[in-house]
C-alpha cells in the first residue's frame, strides 16, 4: 500500500457536537479548513467511522494538562483495528458560565456540564456558587445546546467554551472560570495506517507497549530500551489491560520519527522484549521543538556503525 | 502525636449514595461494620470532611481493573492537606440492567448510568441495545434511585450494582452485563496522618513523586531508586501537575511498609532526587501476598551493613 | 578479502622458548600439530612477526586465573595494526622446583624464574625456602635452560613447567608447588584480520573499548549497551591508555559471535557511543559452554522485529 | 580503638632499594621527611612488616599511567589482615640510560632493568639499541646498583630513575627515554586500620568488591549502587580471585570520604549485595580536585531526607 499523504484527506470527523474544544482543534488544522467536517457523539463512534472508511480522519482529545490522559481515546487507539496519529493540535482551554437571558448569577441553583469540565472549575464554583447542584451532561457543548433550545432544562446554567455559548446565543455570567488559567488540551488527528507524515526534525512518535509478563523491574527494562539509544519520552501513561488488577500497558509519546534510525532500533528493541508493541504514528510536534539528539544517535552515526559492522562481517 | 490505631475509627465516610460499589467496599471492611457510615456526593467532599475531622476515615475508589486510576481520588490525595491510606479493599464489579416494573428490554430507548460504568458495558449495549441513547448520571446508584422514585425520569433503564437495583425494588432486565467479567475495583480507606497500620509482611506503600525538573531519563532515575534497593512497584500512574502540558507527577504503589529498612532508604533516596515526595501511607495488601525480598534487602541485611559501616567509621 | 579458514594456517609462532606453558597451549591446538612452530622472545615479537606475515598465527597468554590479565598481550592487541583472536586454549598451570643433579633442597640459596611464576609460588617458598634469594629470568623455561647448560648460573634452582625441567634433564626437588592448585592460564591464538571462525553456538567475542570522554558513569553506559541486548560479559579489564592517569580503555570478552544479531547490534551501539571500538575476534569457547540467550535476543527475534519495522516504514 | 592521626607515624617502609621511584614518592610525603625510612625488597615484604607493626606505614606503587595497576600491591591489599590507604602521591616517571664511565652508547650490547621499565622504553630501544639483549633485574635501582659496584655485571647499561644513576655515580648515556613523556606513577601510603585522615572535601576512597556470584549483569548491579547515589568512580580494575578462571573481584577508587553520607550509603548498599566488601581507606586526593556532588547527594540532603523519614515513622 502506498502511504497516503495527509493532504489527501477529504472527510474529517470530530468529537462533537459543534462548539466543543475539539471542533476548535479541527479548525486549527490547516488541511481541514475547506473540507467536510462531521461531528460524532463519542470518541468511539468517531474512530469506528474512521475504521469503516466512512471518514478519512478524526480529531479527538488525548491529553489535558489538568485532567490527564483521555481514557476513551487512549483505550480506543490501543485496541481494535490499527489506527495512527498523523498530527497534533494544542488548544488553550477557557471556560465560561452561561445561561438563558434574564438569569442572574445569584439565581443559579444548578449547573450542567461535562464531568471533566466540572473538575476544572471546582475552585471557582466553591467560591461563587457553593450551593449549586451539579448535573452531568454528555459534553460541555451539550450543556449550552440544552439551554439554547426552548423548553424545560435540568439546570440553570452551563459551563462550556466561549464559542459554544455564542453559537447558542446565551448570556455570559462569568468568563475564564477555569481553576488553571494555563490549561491546555492536546488533540490528535487520527487516520488509517498508510498515512505517514514526512519527518520534519521536530517529530513525535506514539506507541502502546504490552509487557511480556508482570515481573518486577519490567517498566525499568522498557525505559532502558529508550535510554540506551538516546530517545526521550514526553508522555507516559499506564492503562489497565482489563485482564487483571495490576496488569498494565503503557501509552508512550517520544521524540523522533519512525524513519529515524534511533527510533527504528528502539522500536525493534521494544518489539523483542514486549509481548506486543502497537505503533500509533509519527507526526510533527505542535510546538515545533526539535529533538536534542544525544551524541552518537544521529542517523549518520547509525550509518557509520552499520558500515563498520558490515566490513567486520565480510 | 501518638499514632492512632485503625481500630479507633468511629465515623466512616464513603462515596455515596447508598447502593454504590463503594458502600460494598466499606461493608467489607471489618472495622466499619458497626460504626457510623456517612455517604458523600463526591470523592472531594468525602476527603474534605475527613480533613476537617467531620469523619475519621473515608472509603474511596482508587483504581479499576478496566478503566484505570480514578483521577478524582488520585488528585485529591496528591494535593491539599496530607492524608494517608490505611487499608485497601478489592470489590468485583458486576453490573445489571434494571428498570421499573413492566418495562421490557425491547422497549428500552434510553439508559442512564455513570460514565465509567457506561464505558464498561459498551459491548453488551452495542449487541443488545444498539440504538439506546446514553444519559449520564452522577453515579450508578443515582440511576437506580431516579427510577426508584415516582415521577418523570430521563431514561428507561439504569446500569448499576445488583444491590442498588434491589434497594430500589427495580426489575432486573439483564445480569452481569459488564464487558469484562473479571473486572475489579480497588478501594482505599483514607485517614488523617497519625494512623499507621502495623507491618504485616504483606504490605503496600503509596507515594506521589514530583520530579525536580522534566529532564530526559527523569523517570528512569526515579525507578532506579526502587530497583537498586530491591523494591517492586505494583502500580504506576502519571498524572499532570496542571502546571504545563507534559509536566507530570507519578502516583506509585510499591511492596513493603514504611518501617521496612529497604522502604525507608528508598523513600530517602526519592526525597533527595525529587522536588517533592508525598507519603500516602503503608497498609496491609488486600490479597495478602508477601513481598519476595531480593537477596540483600531484608531488614537484617540493612542492620548488618549499618553495623559494619559504623565500625569502619569509629 | 575472502576470509581465510583457520585450517589454512601453516606457520605458528608462540611465546618461547620451548618448554613454556605457551608451547603446551600450542600443542593442544589441533590445527598446529603437524605445522611449523616458531618460538619468539616476547609477545611483542611474536605479534610483530604475525603482522609482517612472517608467521600465520601466534599463540600468546592473555589471562591467568591467579595473576590476571597479561598486560603485554592486552596492550599489543589494543594498539598497532589490527589482529584478531581466532581461538582459545586453557592450560592448567603446574610448577616444579628443579635443579642440577646433586643439589639437595636444603642447599638451595637462590631461585630463578619469571616474576609471574614467582608470585604464584610465594607461599610454598615462604614455608620451604624462606631465605632463598629471588633472581628474575625472562621466562620460566629460561630458568630451566640456564640450569641445563654447563657453566656458571646465577641461581641454584629454577621454577618452571614439568616439561621444561624434563627437556633440560634436571632433577625435580618438589612438584606442584603453586599456591593455587587449580591455577589455569588462558591462551589465545591470534591471526591477521580475514580469518573468522564459523559460529558454533558456544562462542566468545573480544573487543577493546575507548571511552569518548572520561565522564562519570561512562562505564555504566557502556555496560548498558550489553545489558539491554542480553549480552553477557565474561571478562572485563581496564587498561590505561597511557595518555593520562585515569584514562582507561576496557578489554572485554563477551558471549556470542560477530554473526549473531544481538552481538552485531551491541557492537554498533558501542561504536556509536565510544571514541573507538576495536574488534579483536569471535571464536569458539574452549569450555564449549553455549550462551544462555535471554528471551527476545535470538537471531529469529531480531529478524521478526526487523520485518515488523520494515512493514511499518513501507 | 581511637583512630591515630597520620602525623603520629614514625617508621616508614617503602619498596626499595634506595633510588627507586618509590623513594621519590616517600620523599614527597611531608610527614615522612624527618622520620625513619626503611627499604624492603618487595611490596609483600613491606606490607608484612606493616602488618606485624615493624613499621608504621608503607609507601608502595599502585597504578602506572602506562602499565596499569600494580598487581602485587592490589593483591596484597585485597587479602590478608586489613590495611588502609591513608594518602597518595603522584610521581612523574623519567628514565635515563646509564653505564659505567667509558662505555659509549654504541658499545652497549645488553641492558638491565625491571620488566615494567623495559616495557616503557621499548620504542626508544627499538630505535637506538635494536640489537641490545634485555636482562631482567629486581628493580630499576638494582640495575644501577649492579653497575655501581665493582666486579662483573650481566649487562652493559641500565635503565633507571635519574636519582639512582646519580647515587651510583654512573654516566648518563641518554635522558628521558620513556616512550610516554607524561608517564606518571601513583603511590599510596598504607597504614594499619585505625588511621583515618580527616575529610577535606577532595577525597578518594578505595574498596575491593567480591561478587556474590558470577551472574550476568553482576558488575552492572554494583556500578548502579554508585550511580544511584551520585558517587563517581576514578579507577576500576578487575582482579582474579584465584578461585577459578573468570572469577573476579573489583578494585575500585571513587570520589568522597567514608564520613560522607553518600559514601556511607553506597558502602552499605555494596555490603548488602556483595559477597564481601573490603574497605581500603579514605584519603585526600593528590590532585586536590573536589568532588562535583550531584544535586541531592550532599550531606545536608541526606540529613533532610532522614529527618523527613523519621518524622513519617514517628
Automatic annotation (TrEMBL), chains A, B, C, D:
Alphabetized PROSITE patterns for the sequence: ACT (PS51671), PREPHENATE_DEHYDR_2 (PS00858), PREPHENATE_DEHYDR_3 (PS51171)
Pfam families xref list: PDT (PF00800)
Keywords: Amino-acid biosynthesis, Aromatic amino acid biosynthesis, Lyase, Phenylalanine biosynthesis
CDD domains referenced in this protein's UniProt entry, alphabetically: ACT_CM-PDT (cd04905), PBP2_Aa-PDT_like (cd13632)
Catalysed conversion reaction: prephenate + H(+) = 3-phenylpyruvate + CO2 + H2O
Domain ACT: 207-284
Residues annotated as signal peptide: none
Top EC group: lyase
Residues in Prephenate dehydratase domain copies: 11-192
EC number(s) reported in the record: 4.2.1.51
Pathway per the UniProt entry: Amino-acid biosynthesis; L-phenylalanine biosynthesis; phenylpyruvate from prephenate: step 1/1
GO MF, one example: prephenate dehydratase activity
Superkingdom field: Bacteria
Protein name from the UniProt record: Prephenate dehydratase
Organism encoding this protein: Intrasporangium calvum
Amino acid at each position: 500500500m502506498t502511504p497516503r499523504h495527509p493532504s489527501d484527506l477529504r472527510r474529517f470527523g470530530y468529537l462533537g457536537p459543534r462548539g466543543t474544544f475539539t471542533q476548535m482543534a479541527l479548525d486549527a488544522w490547516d488541511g481541514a479548513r475547506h473540507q467536510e467536517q462531521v461531528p460524532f457523539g463519542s470518541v468511539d463512534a468517531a474512530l469506528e467511522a474512521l475504521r469503516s472508511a466512512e471518514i478519512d480522519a478524526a480529531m479527538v482529545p488525548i491529553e489535558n494538562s489538568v485532567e490527564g490522559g483521555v481514557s476513551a481515546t487512549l483505550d480506543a487507539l490501543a485496541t481494535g483495528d490499527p489506527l495512527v496519529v498523523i498530527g497534533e493540535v494544542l488548544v488553550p482551554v477557557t471556560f465560561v458560565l452561561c445561561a438563558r437571558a434574564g438569569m442572574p448569577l445569584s439565581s443559579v441553583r444548578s449547573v450542567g456540564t461535562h464531568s471533566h469540565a466540572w473538575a476544572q472549575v471546582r475552585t471557582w464554583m466553591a467560591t461563587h456558587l457553593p450551593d449549586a447542584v451539579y448535573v452531568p451532561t454528555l459534553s460541555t457543548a451539550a450543556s449550552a445546546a440544552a439551554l439554547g433550545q426552548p423548553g424545560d432544562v435540568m439546570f440553570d446554567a452551563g459551563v462550556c467554551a466561549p464559542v459554544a455559548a455564542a453559537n447558542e446565543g446565551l448570556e455570559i455570567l462569568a468568563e475564564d472560570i477555569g481553576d488553571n488559567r494555563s490549561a491546555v488540551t492536546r488533540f490528535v488527528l487520527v487516520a488509517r495506517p498508510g498515512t505517514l507524515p514526512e519527518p520534519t526534525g521536530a517529530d513525535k512518535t506514539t506507541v502502546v507497549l504490552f509487557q511480556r509478563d508482570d515481573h518486577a523491574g519490567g517498566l525499568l527494562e522498557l525505559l532502558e530500551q529508550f535510554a540506551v539509544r538516546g530517545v526521550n519520552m514526553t508522555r507516559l501513561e499506564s492503562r489497565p489491560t482489563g485482564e487483571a488488577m495490576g496488569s498494565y500497558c503503557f501509552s508512550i509519546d517520544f521524540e523522533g520519527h519512525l524513519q529515524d534510525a534511533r527510533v527504528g532500533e528502539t522500536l525493534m528493541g521494544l518489539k523483542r522484549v514486549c509481548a506486543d508493541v502497537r505503533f500509533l504514528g509519527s507526526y510533527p510536534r505542535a510546538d515545533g521543538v526539535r529533538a536534542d539528539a544525544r551524541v552518537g544517535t544521529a542517523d549518520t552515526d547509525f550509518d557509520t556503525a552499520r558500515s563498520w559492522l558490515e566490513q567486520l562481517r565480510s
